[in-house]
Amino acid sequence: MTSRSGPRRELERILESAGPGAVHARTALGTGPVPDRLRAAILALAFARGEGGSCCPSDAARALAGEWRPLLPRARELARELARAGEVRLTQGARSLDPDAEWQGPIRIRPAGDAND
């Protein structure tokens, strides 16, 4: 593993711990298609941060690439897809977001069923 900091290193720690999100971290750190790796990074970070925690789509994008900004729109769309599937919940501030509604600005991704619903 590398000595990087930030979201990439967090995925490495998740994988090493074999705890919540480890299976997803393995996929995210792999060499598969970028959309699959982004989806896995979102899930790994959200699950590992646990109830009451959250991640941002940019965390997943930054975990995969130094030039992460081009990945951000796809990460946001994947977050919507995961919310539609009931795997995560999207929030903006204290407000839950409908994944099918129009919204903009920063969002947070939380595990589905988070006690802060």
From TrEMBL:
Domain of life: Bacteria
Chain positions covered by the region annotation Disordered: 93-117
InterPro entries: DUF3253 (IPR021660), WH-like_DNA-bd_sf (IPR036388), WH_DNA-bd_sf (IPR036390)
Pfam families associated with the record: DUF3253
Name of the protein: DUF3253 domain-containing protein
Organism: Amycolatopsis roodepoortensis
